[in-house]
Amino acid sequence: KPGFYSDREYEWNMSCCWTCRSCDAHSISTSVNAAECSTCQDDETADLNNTVCVKVPGFYVNSESPYFVAGVVCAGVGLLIVLVSGLIVFKNLNRSSIRASDPEYLFVMLASLAL
Q: Least CB-packed of 8, 57, 70, 112 within 10 Å?
């Protein structure tokens, strides 16, 4: 039936049998006894029955969006925390607890978090 494809299973004693399998999430079949499913385009997805490709509406965030503002604020706070942590480690380089924890590794970790 549409939305499925026939997966042929040849065994040593049977040359006639197949199993109907559902198409994957982004592929469809429109005919009965389809040999394979057709893949939808990049901006499309299959419907619930896997019989029609449906356009997926785009979601764009502009700079006035509260989601954009919240993301920028969170990123800024995170960067500030990383910078303050790096400054604390740099100011206390001579302490035994900082020297024992490999300060070069700490700076590499903080730099990767800042990225």
A: 57
Structure tokens at 39: 């893949």
Distances 86 to 15, 70, 72, 81, 101 between C-alpha atoms, Å: 69, 24, 21, 9, 14
- Name residue, tokens 């503002």: 69
| Contact assessment for residue 68 and residue 62, using Cβ atoms and an 8 Å cutoff | yes
Cα separations in angstroms, 105 against 7, 12, 44, 115: 53, 61, 45, 16
Q: Is 45 exposed, middle or buried (0-12, 13-18, 19+ CB in 10 A)?
A: middle
End-to-end Cα spacing for the chain: 51
Q: For residue 36, give both structure tokens.
A: 């394979």
Radius of gyration of the chain (CA): 28
Q: For the residues of 35-55, what is the DSSP string, one character each?
A: SSPEEPPTTEEE-TTSSSEEE
Q: Give this prediction's pTM.
A: 0.48
